[in-house]
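Dear H.,

Thanks for agreeing to be a second pair of eyes. The structure we're designing against is below in token form, covering all 222 positions.
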């Protein structure tokens, strides 16, 4: 006789999933318009601009609500303070500072416009930050997490094998310090081809429900 596994809302994975869902339920805000706030946690960055390689992604994200992140990350507090708020210690702005770092990277890139980026962020208790991040990355496979490495580097090129320039800086030149490193072993056309291949195999479950329905209709009528 088959036995069903009882649902446990306090299971580690289920609690992590609740973090992911809470983040995705947050309103998407212009990345360049954030004001300082206290806390550590998780975030998702969305792109809706005109860079040709991201056309499919941008088209989805011009819908309301914005649906598919191009990058997902986390910011953890120093000293293990819960949610970054602390218990008597100075509160951290780790999450705001991390997003501000990304604003700097995008602003320095010669072929990206900060106005084309939005973000969702969620202040989270420390223990759930890494799990929440990993579940969202697993769900969406964001391009700048799993295909084009290097966007999240604090020091572009630092620690790379033989000082290679990160792939992100190869296709988005201009970030401070990146040009001093040798070109990546993957040429720009190769990186763009990787992006095209990734988007061609985009899992339909990452798309908003209305887009899934439109694609299903297209499959049945085409």
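And this is the sequence the design step returned. I haven't edited it by hand at all.
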């Amino acid at each position: 006789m088959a036995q069903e596994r009882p649902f446990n809302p306090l299971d580690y994975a289920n609690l992590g999933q609740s973090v992911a869902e809470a983040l995705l339920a947050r309103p998407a805000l212009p990345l360049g318009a954030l004001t300082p706030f206290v806390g550590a946690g998780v975030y998702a960055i969305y792109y809706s601009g005109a860079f040709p390689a991201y056309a499919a992604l941008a088209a989805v994200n011009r819908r309301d609500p914005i649906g598919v992140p191009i990058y997902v990350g986390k910011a953890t507090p120093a000293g293990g303070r819960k949610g970054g708020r602390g218990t008597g210690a100075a509160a951290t702005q780790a999450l705001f500072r991390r997003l501000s770092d990304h604003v700097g990277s995008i602003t320095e890139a010669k072929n990206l416009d900060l106005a084309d980026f939005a973000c969702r962020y969620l202040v989270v208790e420390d223990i759930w930050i890494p799990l929440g991040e990993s579940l969202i990355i697993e769900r969406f496979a964001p391009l700048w997490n799993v295909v084009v490495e290097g966007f999240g580097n604090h020091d572009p090129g630092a620690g790379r094998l033989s000082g290679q320039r990160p792939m992100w800086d190869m296709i988005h030149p201009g970030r401070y310090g990146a040009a001093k490193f040798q070109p990546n072993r993957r040429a720009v056309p190769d990186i763009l081809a990787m992006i095209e291949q990734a988007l061609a195999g985009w899992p339909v479950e990452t798309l908003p429900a209305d887009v899934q329905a439109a694609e299903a209709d297209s499959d049945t009528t085409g």
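Two observations from my side: The chain has a mean pLDDT of 81. The two ends are 44 Å apart (CA to CA).

Warmly,
E.
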